[in-house]
Design goal:
The complex is a heterodimer of chains A (about 300) and B (about 450). Chain A has a single domain, classed as ABC transporter involved in vitamin B12 uptake, BtuC. Chain A contains 10 helices and 4 strands. In chain A, helix 2 packs across helix 7 and helix 6 crosses helix 7. Chain B is mainly α and about 450 residues long. Chain B has a domain of about 280 residues: ABC transporter involved in vitamin B12 uptake, BtuC, CATH 1.10.3470. Chain B has a two-stranded antiparallel ribbon. The longest helix of chain B has 27 residues. The chains are: A mainly alpha (about 300), B mainly alpha (about 450). Chains A and B meet through helix 4, helix 8 and helix 10 of A and helix 10, helix 15 and helix 17 of B.
């Protein structure tokens, strides 16, 4: 039971990363009907940007120029990295996806893949091949609760991830921008006639998704503090799986499926040898999709959805 | 039938092409092959001397890119070499021999088109053979490129002609590579893993086609895991199913200690020589081309453009999907067997996301729904990525940028929606001096 609870905690943390990245996929998908295959690498870039900002802030603190408490450094790092990465996302949308809005969707998928490769290689050129160590921002504190070990980091990761997902949900439900986004997801063709600036909404969507990916990157960096340029690939594809599993364009679905994927992976590794993790996890997903071909919260396809 | 994908207008733009067209007018494909043969003959006899004379370290293996990019000093010499050995004989040979070439082409085209095709292929093979004799590096690049052609073309059947977004090709390839390698290693070699050969190794080359067929068949059986879900779902959900399939195959092989697990399999016999790879590629291109131009191929397009309407037009959509997936997977499996025997080493890591990105890039770069496009895409991306090796890591900035530009300016790929009619390609060209254009678009018929 203790082992189970311990793994539950780990799975919550692991699923948080997937959920945050999958939300970005899902948002872009629901509004523009395309998958941003560069998203995994945006996550990677976000982690590096966060790392840079954190080092800068800590350096300023060490030099005595700007001494801030640890939690404020963390908050600022997340906020600034989200803003910078959001800019990157908007840039990617502008150069890589906007010219292809009327093209077959597979073409946009290829541009996404290629932008991802450019981000990886650019990172390698800029920083060289050695891995970067993410600085420790908060003092780790471990609690024991009936045999289950919790760290303040784990709690924070899950809380921040859920908080961001909830904030986004509220943003989409409550604000005018969110309403425009929902309208665009509902009917892409009519919305411009209602005076909704679709280019700005598309950019906003990319900005929000990329910001969440950056947050995921920083949280990941805090939990597993070694960054490398190719860490986004596997995360990106797996979150893509989660986004689809959740159902097309459903943010709630993407969040839940992200956590579900995390749970499956962690619990498979708990019961079976960990080398079988991918095999069993993806077999389960294959089965789910065979019986629920439109994902957990998706609806059967419409004519608009074509690759 | 209204094609649902945007079709680019016309082929390459006119204008600048006219002067080149004037020179090339009246030269049939056979003439170009004569010219190319002349060029590679020249290279194999005088290449080394000429390279010495021009102060080049060696014969430029891949058109001089491999060192000229690093040493600009050598660029003039390389250009001179390329001009003297490739451009001049090719153009002169094609121009001067166009008379006999046209006569032969006309004679054969009228009497025995099959023989004409075989003759062209024989010439093509001869050119390739002479070209690859110069260096082992060229040979391996040529083999890998031919294998890439098979992969790209078979991917096009599903992704281009049928309009799905299948990510399962690395999985099919892995199944083929492992099945074929097991047959040849267990059966015909003395290996540390599987003990002595079961059959005399001398029999091996006879059985190699069987290994190829078996590899293809195993991949096709694996494809059922993707084909059956495709009855109920398509688009993105099928993309995920196929992606999961790739992950599953890779992870399964990693966990099977009997085939070497993550360490992979090595020691495949050296049977995938150039003739074998060439013949396989030719058969693959011919079969896929026949398939997509047949009524089944049109059925694929119908399923892509509107599945419900296709069903109403009495197309058995389930069978069409099944055939397409199994057919594509078969060729991907054969390509996998060849791949394993060219490198003589496979490990599960080879068949991952990187391989997927590569084959998708080649296919969409070349062009949807087009046999020629796939060939062009596979050859150009492969050669480019070998030629740009001296750029080291910058290569991976340059090639993706190129692909992005192609996608922006030609969203369906370089040569999309073009029917490939080999007989039109080899036809004599001295009729009215105009090229007989029979390569009309796929939907025209």
């Amino acid at each position: 039971m203790t082992v189970f609870l311990q793994n539950l905690v780990n799975a919550l943390q692991w699923g948080s990363f997937y959920a945050l990245i999958a939300i970005g996929y899902s948002m872009v998908y629901s509004i523009l009907m395309l998958f941003n295959f560069a998203h995994g690498d945006v996550f990677m870039t976000g982690a590096y940007i966060g790392c840079g900002i954190a080092m800068l802030l800590l350096g300023l603190g060490a030099a005595g120029l700007l001494v801030l408490p640890g939690w404020l450094v963390l908050g600022l790092t997340i906020l600034l990295a989200m803003i910078v990465t959001a800019g990157l996302g908007m840039f990617i949308e502008r150069v890589g996806y906007r010219p292809l809005r009327e093209a077959p969707r597979a073409s946009a998928a290829i541009t996404g893949l290629m932008i991802g490769i450019i981000l990886e290689t650019g990172n390698l050129i800029l920083l060289g091949a050695q891995r970067v160590k993410f600085p420790a921002l908060i003092q780790p504190v471990t609690f024991e609760l009936g045999g289950v070990f919790l760290t303040n980091q784990k709690i924070m990761i899950v809380v921040v991830a859920l908080g961001l997902a909830l904030a986004l949900h509220q943003f989409i439900r409550r604000t005018r921008w969110g309403m425009a986004m929902r309208a665009m997801a509902f009917d892409y063709a009519v919305v411009p006639l209602m005076g909704v600036p679709i280019n700005r909404i598309a950019a906003l969507t990319f900005a929000l998704g990329s910001g969440l990916a950056a947050a995921a990157g920083i949280l990941f960096g805090m939990a597993y503090p070694v960054l490398d340029p190719y860490m986004g690939i596997v995360f990106g594809w797996k979150s893509f799986v989660a986004a689809i599993l959740g159902g097309r364009g459903s943010i709630l679905g993407a969040t839940l499926a992200g956590f579900l994927l995390g749970f499956i992976e962690i619990f498979v590794a708990m019961v079976f040898p960990s080398t079988l993790r991918d095999f069993i996890a993806y077999s389960i997903i294959l089965l789910i999709l065979v019986f629920r071909p439109y994902g957990l919260f998706g609806e059967p396809y419409s004519v608009r959805l074509r690759l | 039938m209204e094609p649902h994908l945007h079709r680019p207008s016309g082929a390459l733009g006119g204008g600048r092409r006219d002067r080149a067209a004037d020179f090339a007018r009246g030269v049939p494909l056979l003439g170009w092959l004569f010219g190319a043969l002349l060029a590679v003959l020249l290279e194999s006899f005088f290449g080394r001397d000429l390279a010495d004379f021009l102060d080049l370290p060696r014969v430029p293996v891949l058109f001089g890119f491999e060192y000229a990019l690093n040493k600009p000093r050598l660029i003039p010499g390389t250009l001179a070499f390329l001009f003297l050995v490739y451009a001049l004989p090719l153009l002169l040979g094609a121009r001067l021999l166009r008379g006999p070439a046209n006569r032969i082409a006309r004679l054969l085209a009228a009497r025995a088109p099959g023989v004409a095709l075989l003759l062209h292929l024989a010439f093509l093979y001869g050119i390739l053979h002479l070209w690859t004799e110069v260096s082992d590096y060229r040979l391996i690049v040529a083999k890998i490129t031919l294998i890439a052609v098979m992969l790209t073309l078979s991917l096009n059947v599903v992704n281009g002609f049928m309009g799905e977004f299948s990510c399962s090709h690395p999985g099919f390839m892995a199944l083929g590579a492992y099945a074929g390698s097991l047959v040849t290693i267990v059966g015909f070699t003395n290996s540390a893993m599987f003990g002595a050969a079961l059959l005399p190794p001398a029999l091996g080359p006879v059985f190699f086609p069987l290994a190829l067929l078996l590899g293809g068949a195993v991949a096709a059986v694996g494809a059922l895991a993707v084909a059956i879900p495709s009855f109920r779902t398509r688009g993105d959900y099928l993309a995920i199913i196929s992606l999961a399939f790739t992950f599953i195959v890779k992870s399964l092989i990693e966990n099977l200690e009997i085939v070497g697990g993550p360490r992979g399999l090595r020691g495949q016999p050296d049977w995938a020589n150039l003739p074998v790879v060439f013949v396989c590629t030719v058969i693959c291109v011919a079969m896929i081309n026949q398939f997509v131009r047949s009524i089944y191929g049109l059925g694929l397009n119908a399923v892509r453009d509107n599945e419900m309407a296709a069903e109403a037009m009495t197309i058995n959509t389930r069978r069409t999907k099944m055939v397409a997936f199994l057919f594509a997977a078969f060729w991907a499996g054969v390509a996998g067997v060849l791949f394993a025997h060219v490198l003589r080493y496979v490990n599960p890591g080879t068949f991952g996301l990187q391989q997927l990105a590569e084959v998708l890039a080649m296919m969409y770069f070349g062009g949807l729904n087009s046999v020629v496009g796939s060939i062009v895409g596979a050859v150009s991306i492969n050669l480019l990525s070998e030629m740009l090796r001296p750029l080291e890591i910058w290569k991976w900035i340059f090639i993706p940028l190129l692909l992005i530009l192609v996608m922006i300016f030609r969203p369906t790929g370089l040569i999309a929606f073009r029917e490939f009619d080999p007989l039109a390609w080899i036809a004599p060209r001295d009729g009215n001096g105009s090229r007989e254009r029979r390569e009309n678009s796929g939907e025209g018929k």
